[in-house]
Specification:
- The structure is a single chain.
- The chain is of the alpha+beta class and 755 residues long.
- The chain folds into five domains: 98 residues, no CATH class; 136 residues, Nucleotidyltransferases  domain 2 (Four Helix Bundle (Hemerythrin (Met), subunit A), Up-down Bundle); 74 residues; 164 residues, Hypothetical protein af1432 (Orthogonal Bundle); 232 residues, no CATH class.
- 56% of the residues lie in helices and 11% in strands.
- The strands form two sheets. An eight-stranded antiparallel β-sheet has the order 5-6-8-7-11-12-10-9, sandwiched between helices. A four-stranded mixed β-sheet has the order 3-2-1-4, sandwiched between helices.
- A hairpin with a 2-residue loop joins strand 5 and strand 6.
- Helix 12 crosses helix 15 and helix 34 runs antiparallel to helix 35.
- About 2% of the residues have low confidence.
- This is HD domain-containing protein.
- Pfam families: GlnD_UR_UTase (PF08335), HD (PF01966).
- Keywords: Hydrolase, Magnesium, Multifunctional enzyme, Nucleotidyltransferase, Repeat, Transferase.
- One of its GO terms (molecular function) is [protein-PII] uridylyltransferase activity.
- InterPro entries: ACT-like_dom_sf, ACT_dom, HD/PDEase_dom, HD_domain, NT_sf, PII_UdlTrfase/GS_AdlTrfase, UTase/UR.
């Protein structure tokens, strides 16, 4: 009986598979079957995940040649019970098998590693890391041992010190990192009561607490930072060994930056990273080790600082940034990065630690340079934009991090040779890097004032192009949820509207009178003249014609309501025409929720003769959501045949289970804004997302006697953001005292929903 894999190595966690090899010299099949029944079945009954093979020594060797996974398992083979001579027959044969195939087997191992990392992701600083198969994980440590055994015949990790590959200090760090990962994985298995190897964010606080880091957020962040460091130690050792082996067996295969550059004079750092940024070549193992242990002189760092902004603009700057971090040179160059290395960003959108997010923002700019050449033509000095991208979140975690970061940037640009004018541009980009995104998602872009206010803050077309590129790069580097196609469309629309204002092009303002005249040629006069001014401003002629046709049908046939779905760039827009009444909008919102739809935007318009024409931009919460079901449900609500409150209470629990995972409950915030719109009071609500929230808040507003003109729904990190455009029944902004009372009512409602 032979243990393989992790069991053979002597490393098993609570949920690990037990890999066994039954080695025999030719037993009859019925004897093998009886043996297995007596041993394997009880193990399965006890809950062990057992995988096993039954071979003679020669069969095992033949299979190892065909299956690289089984070959690696044999590298960890350990006799548990039975014939030692039979086991030694296997090990002698295995040694003969690999001795003449060292290069071939190493390349197989390397290929398996590359496939594994491609499957789980190749970045250490991913916020939900795979403890076993991720880069620097336990499988990487096994790769280190396997490669050492195949190439050098090493029997134990200690042999890496004996042959001079690791120093005793490096070996101690490696051993500590591996033990820590085993401890984390075992704790995770116990917590989940099963084998789970990806450390999801909702598990992290509890694992941190069980490992003694404390139950608060800082304890979790410290735990994840230690985990990232352990990954880095293991990955560093693996890559060093791979370089060592490949220099030995494939000296012409990889053109690494050689160690001799380290003795080329004060400019050696500049030369090393200039080559890497331009060509993407890795540093040799000796050079990496030298840099990790080096105490740099001031003039050496100054030489690198002077050229660093230029290096960020080179195509392989991401490779350079990773090397700067792993060798520690980055922290001499930009000490500010010590505080943010591996810093966790707990929300629904960020997939990477903060420093990696900044690196990926730089990389995203390179892609945008190829994809959006018309924007890049506006960029006078790419150094400024790339440097701003690298430092835009330098103060993340502090209150008002964009403003705090802008102040910090003022103190460091001088080290990198930026002029006062260039520093001013970098400060602007860092300070305003949230402006376009926040505006696009929280303001109605149909209002001219929105674009005018952004234009006032931006100032020039060149600044606008740089800010837009940074916004796109930042969102892409955050994760796929941060820049959906809907959000990208809104950003693009805002960019073009602000650009028109900055260029002061003739016809930038909408000529509403001319637009109404064109509509008169297409629809009856009574309809064209009934369209409210804001609605005329927002929609193009094709949409206005369809709205008028819907209204005409409603007036002629007088149904309970009429619906038409009109495709928009932003998504699926549902137009509803019905008789207006208090609470109508809240009932519409509640009906959409009960039918399984999430509302992204609401625009409400009142026509003459008490007609309501409302637009809902919706998306299904589940694949089964059907607008016909919504229509049937809303008809019952209008006729008093369905109690919407009870219906929502029944369905909300199921809808809640569809939401994304978050590991903490942020605080809610309610704000009143009387300045951003000339016609409306804005009520801004930031709160953890609940499916029933829009309906309940609309109910409070309606019962308070106010009209909802528009409502925009988006997200900010792990908060739902709802912006309501409100007026009194007389069409005026809310008086300050009434707005304050409404604010308090909403806060009370949020507390009730949370409880």
């Amino acid at each position: 009986l032979v243990a393989l894999g992790g069991y053979g190595e002597g490393y098993l966690c609570a949920g690990s598979d037990v890999d066994l090899l039954f080695l025999h010299a030719g037993l009859a099949e019925k004897d093998l079957s009886l043996f297995l029944q007596r041993l394997i079945y009880p193990l399965w009954d006890y809950g062990f995940e057992v995988t096993y093979r039954i071979f003679t020594p020669q069969e095992a060797l033949d299979f190892a040649l065909q299956d690289p996974t089984f070959l690696t398992a044999l590298l960890s083979a350990r006799l548990i019970y039975g014939s030692r001579s039979l086991f030694e027959e296997l090990t002698r044969g295995f040694q003969r098998l690999i001795s003449g195939r060292t290069k071939e087997i190493y390349l197989r191992l390397k290929n398996m590693r590359e496939q594994r990392l491609a499957r789980v992701g190749e970045e250490i600083y991913f916020l939900e890391p795979h403890l076993k198969d991720g880069p620097g994980g336990l499988r990487d440590y096994q790769f280190l041992l396997w490669a050492g055994r195949i190439v050098f015949g090493l029997e134990s990790p200690e042999d890496l010190v004996r042959v001079g590959f690791l120093t005793p200090e490096e070996a101690a760090r490696l051993r500590e990192a591996v033990n820590f990962l085993h401890q984390v994985r075992d704790t995770l298995h116990h917590f989940c009561q099963r084998k789970v190897d990806r450390l999801y964010m909702e598990y992290q606080p509890e694992i941190a607490r069980r490992l003694g880091y404390g139950a608060d957020r800082s304890g979790t962040e410290n735990f994840i930072s230690d985990l990232f460091r352990a990954f880095a130690v293991i990955r560093e050792a693996v890559e060093d060994l791979m370089d060592f082996i490949e220099d030995l067996y494939f000296p012409q295969g990889v053109h690494r930056i050689p160690f001799k550059l380290a003795v080329s004079g004060p400019a050696f750092l500049r030369e090393i990273f200039q080559i890497q940024a331009r060509e993407g070549r890795p540093l040799s193992r000796d050079l990496r080790k030298y840099l990790r242990g080096r105490v740099f002189r001031e003039e050496e760092l100054q030489e690198l600082s002077r050229i660093f902004p230029y290096l960020l603009t080179e195509r392989h700057s991401l490779t350079m940034l990773h090397t700067l971090r792993t060798t520690g040179v980055l922290f001499h160059l930009l000490p500010e990065f010590r505080k943010i290395q591996g810093k966790v960003q707990y929300d629904l959108y960020h997939l990477y630690a903060l420093d990696e997010h900044l690196f990926l923002t730089v990389e995203s700019l390179h892609r945008l340079r190829e994809e959006r050449p018309e924007l890049w033509r506006e960029i006078r000095d790419p150094r400024v934009l790339y440097f701003a991208a690298l430092v835009h979140d330098i103060a993340k975690g502090e209150p008002h991090h964009a403003r705090a970061g802008a102040e910090r940037v003022k103190t460091l640009t001088g080290r990198f040779g930026f002029s006062p004018e260039e520093t001013e541009e970098i400060v602007f980009l860092v300070r305003e890097h949230l402006l376009l995104f926040d505006t696009a998602l929280r303001r109605d872009l149909a209002e001219e004032k929105v674009a005018e206010e952004v234009a006032l803050r931006v100032g020039t077309v060149r600044r606008l192009a740089a800010l837009y590129l940074l916004t796109l790069a930042d969102a892409r580097a955050t994760g796929p949820r941060a820049l959906t196609s809907w959000k990208a469309e809104l950003l693009e629309e805002l960019y073009h509207k602000v650009r028109k204002v900055l260029e002061a092009r003739p016809g930038a303002a909408v000529d509403l009178a001319a637009k109404r005249e064109r509509l008169l040629a297409e629809v009856p006069r009574r309809l064209a003249e009934s369209i409210p001014l804001p609605q005329l401003e927002i929609y193009d002629l094709s949409v206005l014609k369809r709205i008028c046709a819907l209204v005409q049908t409603f007036q002629e046939e007088t149904p309970d309501f009429l619906v038409e779905e009109i495709p928009f760039r932003e998504g699926r827009a549902v137009f509803v025409v019905s008789g207006d009444r208090p609470g109508l909008l809240a009932d519409l919102c509640g009906s959409f929720l009960a039918a399984g739809f999430r509302i992204r935007r609401v625009r409400a318009f009142t026509w003459p003769q008490g007609l309501a024409v409302d637009e809902f931009l919706v998306e299904p919460l589940s694949p089964g959501a059907d607008l016909r079901e919504w229509g049937s449900l809303f008809r019952k609500v209008l006729r008093g045949e369905e109690d919407l409150e009870k219906l929502i209470s029944r369905k909300t629990g199921a809808l809640l289970s569809l939401g994304p995972r978050i590991q903490r409950e942020p605080q809610s915030d309610v704000r009143v804004d009387q300045e951003s719109s000339d016609f409306y009071t804005l009520l801004e609500i930031y709160t953890p997302e609940k499916p029933s929230l829009l309906y309940r808040i609309a109910n409070v507003i309606t019962k308070s006697g106010f009209m909802i003109g528009k409502a925009l729904v988006s997200e900010k990190e792990d908060l739902a953001v709802q912006i309501f455009y409100l007026q009194t029944r007389e069409g005026e902004k809310l008086p300050a005292d009434e707005a304050e009372r409404l604010q308090q009512k909403i806060q009370n409602q949020l507390k009730e929903v949370a409880s």
